[in-house]
Amino acid sequence: MPDAKPPKPVEFKPRPEAIRDRIHRLAADTKNIAWSTHALERMAERDVTDHVAVSVLRAGSPEGPIEPGNKPGEWRVKMVKEVRGRREVGVVVIMIQNRRLFVKTVEWEDPK
Questions:
Q1: CA angle, corner 108, sides to 102 and 110, nearest 5?
Q2: Residue 61, class by beta-carbon neighbours within 10 Å (0-12 exposed, 13-18 middle, 19+ buried)?
Q3: Where are the domains of the chain?
Q4: Cys bridge to 100: 76, 78, 91, 96, which one at CB 3.0-4.6 A?
Q5: Distance between CA 34 and CA 1 in Å, rounded?
Q6: 53/103 Cα distance (integer angstroms)
Q7: Which of 111, 108, 99, 112 shows the shortest CA–CA distance to 34?
Q8: Rounded to an integer, what distance in angstroms lies between the CA atom of residue 64 and that of residue 61?
């Protein structure tokens, strides 16, 4: 009998609603949020305050793919929310072990 290949493991990916809710809960306490130097530089360059970025994490919705991070237990997500009445801000965040958030970058979703 030829060697049978083991089945491929089923890839787990959190549902967008579940990851949104978890990010909202973690962002409720700013102690759970860390900022990359890149994110802070882009925020200054794009005139997006930390208050606005945190509001995106607290009330935004995932947009685009939810991807595994570089380490086990990490998920990369872009959270998006309309601010200032008409423009959308995107915050790319890594959720680490369902316990911390690491902001990679912050961007306007529409070209100005």
A1: 145
A2: middle
A3: 16-108
A4: 96
A5: 54
A6: 9
A7: 99
A8: 10
Nearest to 20 by CA among 82, 80, 62: 62
Strands 100-108 and 33-35: parallel
C-alpha separations of 88 from 26, 29, 38 in Å? 21, 23, 20
User: What is each CA distance from 102 to 11, 17, 35, 44, 63, in whole angstroms?
Assistant: 23, 19, 6, 17, 17
pLDDT (tens digit, 9 = 90+) per residue, 43-80?
999 999 999 999 999 999 999 999 999 999 999 999 99
Neighbours of 98 (CB within 10 A): 14
Average pLDDT taken over every residue of the chain: 91
